[in-house]
UniProtKB/TrEMBL annotation:
Domain ABC transporter residues, every copy: 9-235
Keyword annotations from UniProtKB, A to Z: ATP-binding, Nucleotide-binding, Transport
InterPro entries: AAA+_ATPase (IPR003593), ABC_transporter-like_ATP-bd (IPR003439), ABC_transporter-like_CS (IPR017871), P-loop_NTPase (IPR027417)
Family recorded in the similarity comment: Belongs to the ABC transporter superfamily.
Annotated Pfam families: ABC_tran (PF00005)
Recorded superkingdom: Bacteria
Name of protein: ABC-2 type transport system ATP-binding protein
PROSITE patterns, alphabetized: ABC_TRANSPORTER_1, ABC_TRANSPORTER_2
MF term (GO), any: ATP binding
Amino acid sequence: MGEGVMEAIRCSGLSKRYGGTAAVDGLDLSVSAGQVYGFLGPNGAGKTTTLRMLLGLIRPTGGRAWVNGRRLPDPDGLARVGAVIEEPAFHSWMTGRRSLEALAWCGPPLPHAAAVSSALDRTGLASVADHKVKTYSQGMRQRLALALALMRAPSVVLLDEPMNGLDPAGVREFRISLRALADSGTTVLVSSHQMAEVEQLCDRVGVIKNGRMVAEGRPQDLTTAVARVVLAPPDLEAARELLARYFTVSREGPATLLVQDGDGRAVNEMLGRSGMWAHQIRVERSGLEHVFLELTREASHTERRTGVEGDGDATAAG
Ligand SMILES: Nc1ncnc2c1ncn2[C@@H]1O[C@H](COP(=O)(O)OP(=O)(O)OP(=O)(O)O)[C@@H](O)[C@H]1O
């Protein structure tokens, strides 16, 4: 994304408290127009609550948010926002196309006569549009929900874990639909637990924990280099001691060391100077999943009780 691209979504200090619990706690978030933004976080991190606030379904208790440059709450702007927060219940005896046409009756008029066909097309459902929904796979139903969200040609789409429950082929198809959507200029904010998919799909990623952003950036910038060094004993132990002076090193297998943040050339040079020669040095990026787990490690046993509304952070590690 270039400089000066319009922000499609912005949250500034956005907060939502339920009694003493801070579901979202001073969240800052910025999504440029036309991006696919991955919104990651462990269970209970505040993802759904954030999406519900952006949709005007619940009212924030603090902070501000804008969608398409318009300060929320903004009922008039909702027509330009599509969402799949919970899977809608379709009538299984209707066809996919008929389901969308029936639901089009509720709400404002469609932007053009071919809006239903276009939404089915964009979600890869054109060939099964006239089949009954009860014959659809889980993945097809989830894409039908996406088609429903796209029917009014929104400029921003909010999706809450849309790939949950899909098999690898379903996830791949869904990912292709989302990518095509963003390539046509629609902004997509997608919450997910499927790290590998997020890594492949998203232009940027934000990781939230306890209702706050803990890491943000391009997927490739959030991952770190790991050098995998294969050496035969007895050099292995000597190499571990040597490299451990400069890097975090761990034994991975009987002949392999894992060197965090290791640059292959530096590792090679250090070993060579000490007369040790590796059979192999391979530098890889550690997956986003690893980074996610590290960043959110304590989240599952962290209590989030806060004091009186307006108080500062009272987070206590459990
Ligand atoms: N209506 C509510 N009343 C009280 N607490 C709530 C309510 N909605 C959410 N919470 C709490 O707010 C926190 C954030 O919930 P939220 O559903 O936003 O998390 P999430 O990141 O979407 O989690 P998941 O990945 O499990 O869907 C949780 O601790 C949850 O229990």
